[in-house]
Amino acid sequence: MMTKILVIEDAEPLRNDIIEMLSFEGFDVRGAENGVIGVAVANDYKPDLIICDIMMPELDGYGVLDALRKQEHTVAIPFIFLTAKTDRTDIRQGMGLGADDYLTKPFVASELLETIQARLRKRDTLQDMAEHKLRELSDSIITALPHELRTPLNTIIGFSDMLIAEANRLPPDQVVDWAQHINTAAQRLYRLVENYLMYVRVEVITHNHAEMRALKQKYLDHPGSIIQFQAMHKTQQADREGDLVFDLVEDTRVHISDHDLGKIVEELIDNALKFSDAGKPVCLRTSLDGDHYVLRVEDKGRGMTREQMESIGAYMQFERWFYEQQGSGLGLAIVRRLAELYGGRMQLESDLDRGTTATVYLPLA
Fold first, then answer.
1. CB under 8 Å, gap of 24 or more: what pairs does 201-207 form?
2. Least crowded by CB within 10 Å, which of 126, 157, 324, 336?
3. CATH 1.10.287.130 fits 130-207, yes or no
4. What is the torsional sign of CA 200, 206, 208, 212?
5. What three-state secondary structure class fits 148?
């Protein structure tokens, strides 16, 4: 299939020359004589790459780029500015709007062709990376999901079958005990499904420019209250309220949504409780470090090796066959990806048999 290129240029002789040259090189090329027509043609033609002049009547090149970057189906199209303006301020303005390259007039054919090929190669590389990531995600789901679903389902089915068969002969305390097993397995299944959906959501957002732009508008004014509530809720569920230690700074404005911050705290505390014994402290601290809000969770559990920390990914659970811990191992992967979505990061420090410290850095508003 031929690569489609749209040329938006108000100077007809130059526009025709570019179209003729690129057509000779084997491209499928269309032209537009101004920015308004260019946006309309881009929506209909769906080009693989756009070459656009800056100084044009009705709608200039900056307006064209801004309009296309606001639409989901045109936001990722490689965009090359073609202009006689060489001032650094103009270049920064174009790049700030999301232009991929900048070619100044006059130019020779080889310069334009090299610039086009470079942008197309980068586009192909990004597409290959996205497809590889999605294949990994698909393979991981196919490998891990059946087992993770069957384990709690088998518990639910087994105990419910016994209740149905023996209900008339069971003492009340036995009914309660078996019902508790069913409830625990159902809660595990519910959380598993929620985590899978969360991980898929994060991966989808990562490759969706419109969603990423929307995230830039998410701010939270009182992170401390979310952190404290979620941490206490998790320790109460595990009957380990006495193990939780707080050291929180005063509230500030953080670049994250309340839902995603709550999820980060939930997974960090759950991980710390899961891999440490009752009676050992789980310390939750927040602090400010330059332009970042720092959330740190420290446990005194069994810890991880360097290889394990470097291999954190979805659906991996460390030494599960030995420790028989429940869960899909998604927790730290979700925390890492959520932090990265907002321009932050996660850092792990761990010593075998001494504990693990997970630190999340989130940008301040």
1. 202/334, 202/337, 202/338, 202/341, 203/133, 203/134, 203/137, 203/337, 205/341, 206/337, 206/340, 206/341, 207/130, 207/133
2. 324
3. yes
4. positive
5. helix
Backbone angles phi, psi at 2, to 5 degrees: -70, 145
CA distances (Å), 342 to each of 204, 266, 280, 365, in order? 14, 18, 32, 11
Where in the chain are all domains bearing CATH 3.30.565.10? Answer: 214-365
Average pLDDT over residues 149-176: 90
pLDDT at 236 over 70: yes
What are the tokens at 12? 């007809």
Edge to edge, the sheet with strand 79-83 lists 28-32, 4-8, 49-53, 79-83, 101-104
Structure tokens of 361? 């850095």
| pLDDT score of 325 more than 50 | no
Amino acid at 335: V
* Tokens coding 335: 């925390």
Here the tokens at position 166 are: 């023996």
Say which residue the tokens 């490998």 belong to: 143
Which 8-state DSSP code applies to residue 168? G
Please name the helix (run of DSSP H) or strand (run of DSSP E) that holds residue 362, with its range, or none.
strand 355-363
Q: CATH for 214-365, among 3.40.190.10, 3.90.950.10, 3.30.565.10, 3.30.1490.20?
A: 3.30.565.10
For CATH 3.40.50.2300, the residue range(s) in the chain are: 4-107
pLDDT-based confidence at 327, cuts 50/70/90? very low
- The fold of the 4-107 domain, in CATH, is Rossmann fold (3.40.50)
CA end-to-end span of the chain, whole Å? 46
